[in-house]
Amino acid sequence: MILQALVKHYENLEKQGEVDQEGWCKAKVSYGVNLSKDGRVLGILTLKQEEDRGKKKVLVPQQIKVPEMVTRSSGVSANFLCDNSKYILGIDAEGPNQRVIECFRAAKERHLSLLRETEGEMAQAVRSFFETWEPEKASECIEIKERWEEVTDGGNLIFCMGMHYAQDDPFIQASWERARTVSSEGGQTGVCLVTGKEAEISRIHKTIKGVPGAQSSGAALVSFNAPAFESYGKEQSYNAPVGRYAEFAYTTALNYLLGQRDYTFQLGDSMIVFWAESGKEEYQTAFFEAADPKPDNQEEIKGMFENLKKDRPFHTGDVVLDPDQRFYILSLAPNAARLSVRFFYQDSFGNILKNLAAHYERMSIVKPSWENRELMGIRDMLAETVNQNSKDKSPVPNMAALVLQAILSGAGYPASLYTDVLIRIRAEQGRVTWGRAGIIKAYLIRNANWKEGESYMGLKEESRDTAYVLGRLFSVLESIQMDANPGIKATIRDRYFNSACATPASIFPVLVKLKNSHMKKLEREKGSAKGYYEKLLTEIMEKLDEYPRRLTLEEQGKFILGYYHQVQKKYEKREEM
After folding, report:
1. Are 282 and 263 in contact (CB under 8 A)?
2. Which of 19, 56, 441, 446 has the fewest Cβ atoms within 10 angstroms?
3. Per-residue pLDDT tens digits for 268-305
């Protein structure tokens, strides 16, 4: 299903002129080897372009259309007209050696074979270069010697005559197309599992680039390299027959998607890519903004959700979006030389947005006055599960992908999301943030069927839920201690929060007793405060029959919500004063 969707996306992109035709690809090219008509090296041209990276400009390789490049593992295999210095010039940073010479010979053989009968000055120049170039004497070439470190930095090189690139020459292009047609004849044929048509089967699939953590040269999505993965005598990718066209189409489409940094985002160790069946980027824009809203577009996102809820037309920019448009989300994770599919989800665009809106509704909770966000994006939400003072601030990889999949499909959240939040709160001695409180509320509503929780956006003073009331009580006891001891650096939260949340019966009698000394101090110094707290304590204690010996994980979540709501109410009153 993944490959079929990617092939369809490639076909849409090709119609729009966004991707190259079969047999060609885009490559990052750093330098051009400038040749004379007789194949002499006249110089090395820099093809890198300036690009903004933060506050500074850096030089990056230029994306240039070149003949389709081979998939290399450990063997020697030359590309046509575009490759690194080992293949094009027969040199590396340390000069020529046996391995590098083998690479050059492979490139020489391929170029002379493909261009043997090709007309034109450009083809003659490339042929003459390979017939006369001696890698052992490369250091004697002044043009190469002056740019040695740059040329051998691992970047790709192409041939050119001035600013005319070899791969753009019509005679060379015709020779390349003929060679492709001939090479495809005689290969193993079969029924392609993607298109369902009889076709030549691709033995090795091109690599996918752009997934952080995978090999920089690219990783395979479909790959078989050991007998344990083979069956019925089928070796390599013949084990899962995919036609050459389908293989080219899906790899091209996926590499294109991963190259669209404005329409991808990383979640844990996974790279998330998404696209509409129609190929229109407006759907990608709307989804990205909805899944990762920023402070300056939150009202627009809420308006889009509202229009969708009321079956009114909704749009991004000036484009009206179709809620029935098929939409795909793919999560890829690195796995050495291969890629793992964390999940692949497809549904109508409208349903996906509705599930996102329902998630944000469940997450909705009273927030601090300084917080300028109405909606917390999925990446920000997952950041609440990790220690922000640690070097690695990434959430648990598999959990992060499962959370996104659950939100998109409207399914229950993974239990690890809830437990990780509780662990983080305990580790930080009861530090309950807006995001953590929202996660707990959303989890209890969706997973524990806590329907009444939908009305717990702010303090629920009439609630008689024991765990929730205990959380409120703990917050009030902490406030009494803080008011009685202004400037105190550590409160009962730092010492008793975890125990009070898990085993109330063993802790609250101690805290209530401790409270009495603080109340006496308030009576001496802040008489009005003592009266306020006595009234509040009476109201809360009236809702408690006893202190439970233990609270379940779900009850601990309600305790935390009660604590958080009461704290926010306290600050709300201070702002009103």
Report:
1. no
2. 56
3. 889 999 999 999 999 999 999 999 998 888 888 988 99
Q: What pLDDT is recorded for position 184?
A: 57
Question: Helices in 202-279 by DSSP H: which ranges?
Answer: 244-259
Write the single-letter amino acid at 32. Answer: G
Q: At what angle do helices 298-309 and 281-291 cross, to 10 degrees?
A: 110
Using DSSP's 3-state secondary structure scheme, residue 277 falls into coil
Q: What are the tens digits of pLDDT across the range 190-212? A: 889 899 998 888 888 888 988 98
Residue 66's beta-bridge partner residues?
25
Q: Which of 494, 506, 498 is nearest to 548 (CA)?
A: 506
Element (H, E) at 283: helix 281-291
Host H or E run for residue 120: none
Q: Which of 442, 371, 375, 384 is nearest to 413 (CA)?
A: 442
State how far the Cα of 575 lies from the Cα of 385, in Å rounded to an integer.
30
Query: Distances in Å between the alpha carbon of 80 and those of 24, 109, 167?
Result: 11, 10, 9
Q: For residue 571, what are its two tokens? A: 């600050």
The string of DSSP letters for 50-88 reads EEEETTEEEEEPEEEEEEPPP--SSS--PPSSEE-HHHH
Angle at 68 between CA 67 and CA 71, to 5 degrees: 140
Cα→Cα distances 377→267, 281, 571, Å: 12, 21, 25
Of 207, 266, 277, 276, give the one whose Cα is nearest residue 237.
Answer: 207
DSSP string, 127-190: HHHHHH--GGGGGG-HHHHHTHHHHTSS-EEEEEETTEEGGG-HHHHHHHHHHHHHHTTTS-EE
Percent of the chain that is helix, strand, coil (3-state, to 5): 50, 15, 35
Q: What is d(CA 433, CA 456) in angstroms, rounded to the nearest whole number?
A: 16
| 330: confidence class by pLDDT, cuts 50, 70, 90 | very high
Phi, psi of 71 (to 5 degrees): -95, 115
Specify whether the CB–CB gap between 172 and 166 falls below 8 A. yes
Spatial distance between the Cα atoms of 447 and 444, rounded to a whole number of angstroms:
5
CA atoms of 168 and 349, how far apart (whole Å): 40
User: Is residue 159 a contact partner of residue 33, using CB atoms and an 8 Å limit?
Assistant: yes
Q: Looking at the whole model, is its pTM more than 0.70? A: yes
CA distance 291 to 380: 10
Longest dimension (CA), the chain: 104
